[in-house]
Amino acid sequence: MRHVIVGVSAAGMAAAEAIRKRDPSAEIVMLSDETHPPYYRPLIPYLIYKEKTGEDILRQARLTPSNLNLRLGVRATHLDPKNHTLTLGHDEILSYDRLLIATGASPIRPDISGLDGPGVFLLRTWADAEGIATVAKGAKHAVILGAGRIGMKSAFALRHLGIEVTIVELDKRIVPQQLDDESAAIFAQAVAEAGIKTILGQTFKAVNHKGKKVTSVTLDDGSKLKADLVIVGVGVRANLELAVSGGLRVHQGLLVDEHLRTSDAHIFAAGDVVETKDIVSGNSIVSGIWTNAAEMGRIAGDNMAGGNSTYEGAFSLLNAMELGGLPVVSVGDVQALPGDGVEVFAERHGQAYRKLVFRGDRLIGLILVGQIERAGIYQTLIREKADVSALRRELLGPRFHYGHYILSKPRMADRYVMAGKKN
Amino acid sequence: MFEDRSISPDSIEMLGVAQKLGAELVWDRYAAQLPQCGFGETGLCCRHCLQGPCRIDPFGNGPQTGVCGATADTIVARGLDRSIAGGTAAHSGHAKHLAHTLKKVAEGKAPDYGIKDSNKLRAVAQRQGIQLVGKSDQQVAAELADLALEEFAERSAPVEWTMKTLTAGRLKKFGEMGLLPYGIDSAISEIMHRTTNGVDADPVNLLLGGIKCAIADYDGMAMATDLSDILFGVPQPTVAAANLGTLKKDAVNIAVHGHNPVLSDMVVAFAPQMEAEAKKAGAKEGINIVGICCTGNEVLMRHGVPMATSSVSQELAILTGALDAMVVDYQCVMPSLTKVAEGFHTQVITTMGIAKMPGATHINFEEEHAAEGAREIIHLAIEAFKKRDAAKIHIPDIRNTAIAGVSAEALIGILSKVDGADPLKPLLDNIVNGNITGVCLFAGCNNVKIPQDRNFVTMIKELARRDVLILATGCASGAFARHGLMTPQATEKYAGPGLKAVLTALGNAAGLNAPLPLVLHTGSCVDNTRAVAIAVAIANKLGVDLDKLPVVASAPEASMEKAISIGTWAVALGLPTHVGVVPPVTGSPLVTQVLTQTAKDLFGGYFIVELDPVKAAEKLFEAMNERRKGLGLAEKVVA
Amino acid sequence: MKSIFVQPDLCTACKTCEMQCAIEHSQAKNIFASPSEKPHPMNRVYVEAADGRKIPIFCRHCEDAPCVAACISGAMFRDPITDAVMCDWSRCIGCWTCVMVCPYGVIGRQLELGKAVKCDLCPERESPACVASCPTKALVYEDVERFSKEKRATFAAAIAGG
Prior knowledge:
Strand content of chain C: 15-25%
Radius of gyration of chain B: 24 Å
Order of helices and strands of chain C: EHEEHEEHEEHEH
CATH architecture of the largest domain in chain C: 2-Layer Sandwich
Strand content of chain B: 5-15%
CATH class of the largest domain in chain C: Alpha Beta
Shape of chain B: globular
Number of domains of chain C: 2
Largest sheet of chain B: 6 strands, parallel
Oligomer: heterotrimer
């Protein structure tokens, strides 16, 4: 049985590990269109200010399945589901018994004049980060479009180099998806204290160049910002070309069933390329989250090797990060407004913030700023769609712990509290 | 909301305020302590020497003896004894202070104090064997003070207050069992000696030693009550108020907190002199003194000073933003007060050399310069008033009437309006005829482990409807006052028919045109001895000992070592004594049995540990019926 | 592979396990010196309270450990010999994604260093510090099979006995 996996990041590697677990002797061919060995994409901002070297962000052997046929710098250009083959590059044909499309997503290039010029970067790959690092060396002013995760990470990275940074964000708050107004206000302070300037409610009208250098950015309202380095982080789009070439069903992402099988029985998909359903709302989403990708990869790989696992759906929001030394965890539906069965509990004390969103008996959303301990239990409750009516009071308090959870499930509690006394 | 923390409406309202402010209170600190260590909870941890700390495994899997060979029984008994010593030291420290003050008064060194009640002085002195003929109050006071001070020393005879106030039966029993202490401090010190490494390892012997110390506790408390009455007046029924709503937005609010009227009475006495200054500072209503805990009880019953709050909710007074000063002496004062006060203008003022707190302002209060001390304290409060932040003021609009001050003298006074020649007869007759099932003395504290006041309020309703006469002291009275239960209205609402009839008759006889309140407020914690005086009088009249009376005691939300020492002497005096929390003794089934069963055989009194307040009331009711039966009286039957 | 089994009925919440865990993960490795070390040693096992019960909560070293799958820097991994789930501080960037996904809430944050802190089954010891120090033997370090067998035997005896 030959398994071919296109993509060597979170989803691809998790799939390979799952396949290896079921079938230690299966042939696994993995293809990456990047020349770098498998690496941890979320770490690339550290390359910008040389906090980490390339070595530091590589996937180590201990987390790589054994006996992989790893082919770097290879692009799968065409898919032939009928003949179970892939075309690699111009003419090499590779056949497969099972195929996993884990081609990920690419950053969106907004249609803005001058965006294609020099000194303007997206941030998705190792190469992007190295490119930014090079230009950053001589840069004094950086302007970033998008105050999402990419924009924020880039901003803080550039501040380490002493560069003046301005972030331009269309929404009315920073990190608009992961934060609500209250938590964004908390972070706005941290961001300002880090020397990062933020302009909200604006976008780029044009990026201006002089010769081979970027010189400034013009905003919607006509104002101009000095810039010798521009980074754009406004979201990603699924890499569907390969799937489309094979006639697989796609929408915003590659469509799959609950076993992560595409419209072809031998082809599976996992990771940022997939369109799946939001575990909280049931809506279709394309999720650009590492954790989701790894989970999908594991299930897809398991099924490729003969398993029958089901994927329950992805969190559209599942984010943990630290900005300016302040940690925040955002899970599920954090923007829901009260009413129509939804209750929102929010409490702020200084820089600490807790927001829990309930729909009926279920927890559906969570933002924790500052004290993020035990966030994982909350996440589990959201994922399991658990009935938390008996836990409501403990959940709202700062001392919720796993013991509360066990005791709320009587049968589980009985098993946990085992007959062990000798007296 | 907050029903797990308190059932008192003013506390609940302030808990809401606390939550908005993010203020950390006793309940939060308790939650952070959970789970509490099981070795501590069972009394199975010993730190009495450097070869430890040792612990005994209650499940039998780990060690069953400490390093020195002490068993669970020994360790638990030693630990309990030390708590009794702690409680005794506290009460007797209070008594000692009063004795020193009386001596200073007699020597003319404390001009701001005086003999408030000459009759009480002479009555006590005479009772204690001092010759009165031809002596001035000054001379009598000097002798009484010396007698009191000697009580604490190494002596060659049993302590005097005990010998002169208990029944002959009790004294004989204690004498035969070798339980009469010869000196209060001697008894405390003996406990420290016998419980250190390598002294007393016999659990029963240890417990009997603990009882001896508890009797010393009783002794000091009886002394404290007498001396307080002499210096500050015998309490008579007073109508006052309770709850945080007694704080006034337009006054300089000063809370007196702690225990000794030596301090609080002076603050009350000298406040009128400072009214002008307060008004000048902008306080339209001048100075408003309120009480917290026992010292609050002292000035409540003598001066009608309102009881703002007590015990577990003491921090909430500061959160009202309207408390300008909290003046404390000793015992039950949370060191967290200074932290809570950080967000407010409130001055936390300590006054005693042995009781300081980081963050507080210390004014060394000396009896010789009491007026100066009191004025300085009040002055600080007035200065603090000027720093109030009006935006932070939130005084719950909750206030209950509270009738306080039913000293033994006052009760006899009321009874003599019914029968002048034989005042106890009406009381006894009604016990005999079953209108009154028996008497229950509620004492003790609040405990953060129990929603504040829940056990008190539940039990009083259960007992009152069973026609039990209720006395209360300390923070038990604080609890009842907060819920409007120290009122005639509460009698109307909750008393069973027999009790209602008696309280109504007494109320009418006293000229109230209303029943006596449901709870007879007997005073502060040391004033538990007032209830003993009444019980002794009844016992002597009936010709039986205390262990035959249908009289019980309950500390349903006990928390302090003082409650343990009082509970112990209550048991020794022959009272079935209920505790609403589990004391750290369950690690020794033997000790537990001695306290709850063997004690009954030895003393007639015994501990009832019952966490459920409804069940506790039932058990106390059964205990009273058992006593009734023993006296040949009809047992009470209630639906 | 040996796992730590918890018998909550025998737990007195003395928190000796918490304390010894912190001490084991310190420089000085003794109660007198360790508490004042910087960065301050942290316990990775937790004894909590709920409903009046004492509940020790330990890392399960899950087979499909969510923390390992979720780790974005390759810091979380499974030790091939002990099967313990470990956090490699040379790779940890303190993003707290593991904290966000651990269903038991047993991953802590070392704030001074910005690293995730979790149970490592005390690789330098015969048996983990918590197990060795529990005064009531509430903690057992045993093979899964052996432990289950003992439990079944105890349970069967209880049923047979009446």
